[in-house]
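New to this. Help decode both lines:
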Amino acid sequence: MMATDPEHVRNLELEAVIGFNGGVSSGLRVHPDRESLIYPLGCTVIVKNIKSGQQMFMHGHTNNVSCVTVSRTGHYIASGQADIIIWDYAKKEIYARLQLHKAKVEALVFSPNDKYLVSLGGQDDGSIIVWNVESREAICGSPASAHSTGHCYTIAYSNQSDSIFISAGCGNMRVWELDLSNRKIRPTDCQTGQLKRTVNCIAISEDDSFFFCGTTSGDILKVNPKTKLLNSCGPIKQKFSKGVSSIKVLKTGDILVGSGGGMFTLCSGVNFKTIKKVELEGGVTSIALRGEGHQFFVGTDAAQIYRFSYTDFEPDLISTNHNSAVQDVAFPFGSSELFATCSKGDIRVWYTDTSKELLRITVPNMTCNALDFMQDGRSIFSAWNDGKIRIFTPETGRLILIIHNAHSMGVTAIAGTRDCRRIISGGGEGQIRVWEILQRSYRLVETMKEHKASVNAIKIKSNDKECVTASSDGACIIWDLVRFVRNQMVLANTLFRGVCYHPEEFQIITCGTDRKIGYWEVYDGSAIIELEGSLSGAINGMHVSHDGNHFVTGGDEKLLKVWNYMKGTVSNIGTGHSGSITAIKICCNNKHIISTSADGAVLRWKFPHPPS
């Protein structure tokens, strides 16, 4: 059953998003009003005020945004996926939706007077299309490159003319002229002599006298767009590690260069000699100038955003984000000020109200599957895919203890007792293990073997004498933690992903791949009621509010739902995630919900039922 009246379901207020898709080439932009950053996250385009940090969200795409551009006047933003959306910036709403490309849109660029938008199709499409912004229709199109050459990767528009733009890619570089009266675009190939390069990015000088091409080989080509001839190439000796991935020309004629190796450099536009340089975390994918270029913002594929001023060239890290799927989220017991998240390679602790990263605990090349805070707040314990349990201090991130070989197929779920003396862990092989945590050591107390597949969630009763485990084998088992035997077993035709005790602890609720939410009696394991929890895809996470009146769910449907526990009805739905929701927690003061997703995003929502 699903006893939800859609008319009475309200939208959940999204307060903040921690996330930035640093993998999108030139995805970070500064609006010409100099007040806002614009960047993609999943299928959302985010507009963030530089001073206040306030965010606005533009929803319209159904898949991950692959490119973003802003018009010179700032009236329009364009974003691409398989289709293209032109957004009215002032209204923050869709101005036009353009569909002609077969698959992914690789790049977008507006003409200097906002008359035209040029789009470049991805590898499966390979075409360039010119659109009339006012009429919202295509003017003309052409294959981006000749059959004998490779794929085209990037486009740039002239700064002076609405009828000239440039494209480049693997072994091709073309200056295009728009012939409006005949509805044609005519390309002229540039001559680079013996040099054969793959171009990642293009930047054109303000007066259109030269354009610079950053290559995968780590050098820069300087080309005259009028003669279509190569002017120079450099640097000769010290090429940029892992290629030039982003490039911008300053009014001074110097150029800003970002490399795939993480080096951000100010170079002479004449001889490519380095003037200043600094190493950043992750390969540089975006350089965005603010105003005249006295200040600029740099995005990296490690999902970091830096701010620089031209004078001191010192990096100011203004935004840190996960760059892979976030697996779990946890609040310290009795506190709502901080929360922790985990992902591939690290655990991060955040301030709830400001979304600022407070602490990062790094374990390279490993994935943290689950984590929680000990009740006394003295440690964070965590479950890792290398089969180890790691315990850290929450203030400094110092490693306190490692339990080696905790599980043979990775540690997949974890929970701590209220007395802070024991940790219960679950593994990929289905075992449940009870560990006694001593001063600087540990002891395996018991192993319980009944699950046949991965253990996905563990919850411990408040008296520490019982726990419930949810597994992909279709069973939830309620265990006696005094005698280490099974008390009850709940079976369903599903892969259980989550389980929670109601705060009064006479019932459990479950969720999983069958899209159902099950209510069960703890006493005898009998089913009470089953709700239709999702219209599509698994429910991966759930959490019950501390007063027991509400619970939240989320999963592959990408929607966050707030439920009335007794009625079994949805009161609020949150739209904002672009990837599958992986974990959810309501903070103890019932102010916020934190949800995490497979695209690396962490979202903070206003909990709609504050304590009375």
Observations:
- The mean pLDDT is 95.
